[in-house]
Amino acid sequence: MNNNRIIIKNISFIGNSRKPSRLDFDSGVNLIYGASNTGKSFLLKAIDFIFGGNDQLPDIPERIGYDYVLLGLTITNVGDFTLVRSTKGGNYSLYNGLLNELDDNAKATILTVSNPPKGMQSLSQFLLEKLGFAGKKLAKSVTGVTENISIRDFSTFFIVNETTIQSEKSVVEGDLGPLKTTRERSFFRLLLTGSDDSSIAQIPDKKTLATSKKAKIDILYDLLDVIEKRLEQDYSDQDDLPDQYKRLTNTITNGNEEYTEIEKVISEIYKEKSILENDLREIEINISESEQHISKFSQLDNIYNSDIERLKSIEEASNIVTLSMDRNCDLCGAPPEAQKFKKGIEEIEKSKNAVIAEIIKIGKLKEELNLAIKDLNEQKDFMISQASNMQNKLQALKTLYLDKQEKLNKVKSSMLESVNIREKVKEGISLIEQKNDINKRIRDTKSEKYSDNDRPKLKAPDNLIHILCMKVSEILKAWDFPGECDVSFDETEYDIKIDGKLRTNNGKGVRAITHSAFKIALLLLCEEQKLPYPGLLILDSPLVTYRDPIKNVKDGTLSEDEIALAKTDLKEKFFKFLSEKKHIGQFIILENVDPPNNIKNYAHVELFYGNSESGKKGFFNN
Description:
This protein is an alpha/beta fold and 622 residues long. It has helices at residues 40-50, 123-131, 155-158, 162-166, 181-193, 206-234, 241-324, 342-447, 462-478, 508-528, 560-566, 570-580, and strands at residues 6-15, 18-24, 29-34, 68-75, 79-86, 92-96, 108-112, 121-122, 137-139, 146-148, 159-160, 487-490, 495-498, 501-502, 536-540, 586-591, 604-608. It is built from twelve helices and 17 strands.
């Protein structure tokens, strides 16, 4: 986290018709004191105004003619800036560097008072970013509603006016009213811990809870009415739905088993059918091949027959020739022995014998061929018989297959019907469950009660509160505050106790100085813990205890505890202590009472003389 600090360098009022009125500040301890009505309270309101205060500047005569208020400030580790705002209010102009007057040639950045439009930045965003608080959130209610942090949340802690410092309210709370109490305490916790409330989950308050309960119950009754009408319309026997669901489930389970069994049978039939079809195709191929062989063998048999017929013709011709050689010639009447072809007869005889031998040979081949044809026909007839049996068996398998398939479809259809009915029954059971659930939610919602235990824990850590109280005690002792200075924290009143006495139960002067001690202690603790803090503290009238009752009649007489405090040298030690801590923060003290004689050793002093003829009469009187 950043631990940059704000240091106010000067504040000026300027106008075309008036001489600039300017007040400079030191980075350490600053004291502005003097008579009443000299501008001290106006100065505080002007600083608050330039830091985003919503209240308009007091409409005092001395302010007439001034158009702008300029605040020169340094943000450590960042740079010097000048904030300019119209005395009538509105947005800001931010300039780099410290300006004594407005320069038309100087470049300014416009900062808005409230949420800026896209592309712009607000004063709060600018300062929070530089101080390390950008994006932080604070709980604004005990129910955990959060809001973005604003620079105005710092106002209670570093701009403490006279009313607040003397108030009987908690030292953590300002003048914003009870509605802001939770937010102020959340900011105090943020300062102590460095952690914001972004992680808090919101819970409804009593009124919101009551409204939410009624709306929720109304919606539940509307839903219940819709469900009950559907049950009444579609489910006459609601009590039997669970048993019906079980019966349907059993039916579906049995159907699944039957379906699986039939599928298994069909698969086996299909397998057997495939094998049989393959075997039948092979037999048909073999029958076809046998028929082709028989056809070829028949053709060969015909050739054999033709050859035998031809050879028999040759044999018959030879016989005729041979017979004619044994008798007289039919032409000339010559006897056989007188004929010239006697020698050729022998050759014819040889040919005849060869023909007879060939006929015998072909006859044997024909016999073998006929045996082969007979064998092929027998094989073919056997295969035809086999094929016929297979076809009959195949037809039977096809018939069985179709029968099983039809049965499977019926089982499937029956199962689908059961599944659809079961789904409707299941929907009815679901509607009954929804009805019971809604009735339970109605009862639970009606019984819901607001409980403080549900609230987020917004309490500051005890150990850090203790450390802070020790720091307050240390400061009071350093100032010589009367008593033991034993400081504790009261969680109920959200304020400190000193020696067992609640701070707010003291006189206004004691309340003012103890309030100051608390705010100074918080600044010192943040510095020591390296937690982000502006490092700026403005206190209005912290030493009111030292007032003169005669000169300050409006403040009333001193109470006993104020008298005891006024007898101490706390006033001198107060400024001396601040001077010793000036390296960690800027202190601006506004006072009506006379300061210690050696005050200039500890502080930058501005004295407003009022009606005196010498010196600075007031903020607007030079």
